[in-house]
Amino acid sequence: MKTKYSLMISTAIICAASLLSGCASIVDGSNESVSVSTPPAKGATCKLTNSKGTWYVNKTPGSTTVHRAYGDMKVTCKKSGYKSGKKDVKSKTKGMAFGNVVFGGVIGADVDMANGSAYDYPTNIIVPMQKGKG
Length: 134
What we know:
Layout: H1 2-20, E1 31-37, E2 45-50, E3 53-57, E4 62-67, E5 73-78, E6 85-89, E7 92-93, H2 95-115, E8 119-120, E9 124-126
Parallel strand pairs: 1-9
Antiparallel strand pairs: 1-4, 2-3, 2-5, 5-6, 7-8
């Protein structure tokens, strides 16, 4: 009888642990690739900044991998002969972030929100540029 009771407790502990542990893999990790284009200018250099860091696209159109975050990402592009192009890119909460509450528990959702995994930026970012100085 003592063995059955021990087995039941062990099983209950394992089940509880699996329900309480969140898994960021439900929402695809904390990094994502974004592409930047600067019509009509090609070959611009862009700086992308959010609360998690700064990244660069050395020549548009081009891509870089950024760290996801809750807040907006500021994109600033420069090219000789053109006015600086600026754009604030909004981050959106992924649908699976809410699914993580169901499958991974509140702890999993908190982890994903803290490390940025619960958010997405648009895959293609367009920063229009105009001829002129500065």
